[in-house]
Amino acid sequence: MNWKLDEAQQKLPEVIDAIASEPQLIFKQDKLVAAIVEPKLFQDFLAWYQKQKASSLADAFVELRQICAEENYILETPARYSDNSIPFAAEMNVETRNFASLQGFWVTHS
């Protein structure tokens, strides 16, 4: 059921009783500002949220390594490009580490 904020404040016990049948949505000036749900539903949401939040890129790589090991899969990577030149090295004054000629970059002096 949908409630206006003022009405929900005045009838809070009724709002709480109504969560047994469905989540209770509270609006202020036609904008959803709160939802009151059963405790079990909220706990399930928190568990899901923590699991989603805990996953990281590192976790994904660990899982990928495990899958590769189980499947006896070897990822072949191409050889690196051998030219180690820096594209903007000609613009850089290596003696003073002055990058002033590269507009938008910091100027540093050693």
Quick gist of this model?
With 110 residues, the chain is an alpha+beta fold. It is built from four helices and three strands, in the order βααββαα. The protein has a three-stranded mixed beta sheet.
Instruction: Give the class-level CATH name of the domain at 2-70.
Output: Alpha Beta
Give the helix tally: 4
For the biggest sheet, the summary is: 3 strands, mixed
Number of strands: 3
Quaternary form: single chain
Q: Per CATH, what is the topology of the domain at 2-70?
A: YefM-like fold
How would you write the strand order of the largest sheet? 1-2-3
**From N to C, what is the helix and strand string?**
EHHEEHH
The overall pLDDT average reads: 81
Low-confidence stretches: 105-110
- Structural classification: alpha+beta
Radius of gyration: 29 Å
Morphology: elongated
Fraction of residues in H or I helices: 25-40%
Question: For the terminal residues, how far apart are their CA atoms?
Answer: 68 Å
* Second-tier CATH architecture of the domain at 2-70: 3-Layer(aba) Sandwich
Note down, in words, how this protein is organized.
By secondary structure, the chain is of the alpha+beta class. It has a domain of 69 residues: YefM-like fold (3-Layer(aba) Sandwich), CATH 3.40.1620.10. Helices cover 39% and strands 13% of the residues. It has a three-stranded mixed beta sheet. A hairpin with a 2-residue loop joins strand 2 and strand 3. The longest helix is centred in the middle third of the chain and has 16 residues. The protein starts with a strand and ends in a 40-residue tail after the last helix. The C terminus is likely disordered.
